[in-house]
Amino acid sequence: MELQWPLIVFTILVAWSAGLFASQCLVAIAGGAELSEKSGKSQMIAWVVSAVLLVAGGVAVLFHLEHWERIFNGFGNVTSGITQELVAIVVLVIVAIIYLAQMRRAENGVPGKAICVIGIVASIALVGIMAHSYLMAARPAWNSIAWVLYVLGNACVLGPCTMLLAMLAARDSGTSSARLIALVGSVLAVATAVAYAVVLQGAASSIVTIGYYSDPTMVAFPMTDVPSVFAGQSFLIWLGAVVVGTLVPLGCVLAARFKKDARSHAVLYALAVLGAVVGAVSMRVAFYTLGLGLFVF
């Protein structure tokens, strides 16, 4: 299948946005005595960045459609993945607006725990629904819950690391809870990436080749060499998505725990975000390249 770059960008930015919003909610809940006026500033920075990422993702997905206005014709079908994504996005936007209102009212700029819990649930739901819309029995490489968990893993590493950058920008010193969230998120990202990489590489055995060349000199050769197609993506999956996309961010998060100065932290967390983005792109390139039908003609 050819690469769908608007959808690649959309899924990365939405996962990043939801992960960041969930991270700031977690920091607001777990911050405790660390919360201060600077916490309110870092919360506002994170909220704005999350909103920008979500809007950018929405704009990107429109480029996937030749007639974007026709997208409204599908909203009447509640079983449609597009409809479910829209509902999840609208719910998250409403929660985020309430979150913003509470931030503006709170003395320290940090909202109440109830809206934080709702924000975490809404963020997880959005990423899960978005990833679930790609599950298709006709495409074995896509049809796995491991894909949904992988996209959630993207959010788990991109969100906390970006939140830490927002806290550094605001000179918010209460980063201990955020650093723990980033560490746990990075570990989850590694686990989900490895799991989906294994599933993706093993999906070749589920594809049946039933189309052959009509050339009498090549009657035994399939039109698509499925094993070669899958083997050709191994480098991108394991080096790009797993090593660069998850192990590098995990290494950066661990290294930051042994550094004291803010500049080192900023560089390491920025590298973690960059690595996670590169890995997310790599996996999605492999995802579309290996999106072969169950029966290859």
Q: How does the SSE layout of this entry go?
A:
Blueprint: H1 5-30, H2 37-62, H3 81-105, H4 113-132, H5 145-169, H6 176-202, E1 208-209, H7 226-231, H8 234-256, H9 262-289, E2 295-296
Parallel strand pairs: 1-2
Q: Please, could you describe this protein's structure?
A:
- The chain has 297 residues and is an all-alpha fold.
- It has a single domain, classed as Formate dehydrogenase/DMSO reductase domain (Formate dehydrogenase/DMSO reductase fold), CATH 1.20.1630.10.
- The protein contains nine helices and two strands.
- The chain has helices at residues 5-30, 37-62, 81-105, 113-132, 145-169, 176-202, 226-231, 234-256, 262-289, and strands at residues 208-209, 295-296.
- A two-stranded parallel ribbon has the order 1-2.
- Helix 2 packs antiparallel against helix 3.
Quickly list its features.
297 residues, single chain, Formate dehydrogenase/DMSO reductase fold, two-stranded parallel ribbon, mainly alpha
Indicate the percent of residues in helices. 55-70%
Major sheet summary line: 2 strands, parallel
SS summary, helix count: 9
- SSE pattern: HHHHHHEHHHE
Spatial extent as radius of gyration: 21 Å
What is the CATH third-level topology name? Answer: Formate dehydrogenase/DMSO reductase fold
Shape: globular
End-to-end distance, in Å?
13 Å
Arithmetic mean pLDDT: 84
Give me the secondary-structure category.
Answer: mainly alpha
Q: Order of strands side by side in the largest beta sheet?
A: 1-2
Total E-strand runs:
2
Q: CATH class, please? A: Mainly Alpha
Identify the CATH architecture. Answer: Up-down Bundle
Q: How many separate structural domains?
A: 1
CATH homologous superfamily classification: Formate dehydrogenase/DMSO reductase domain
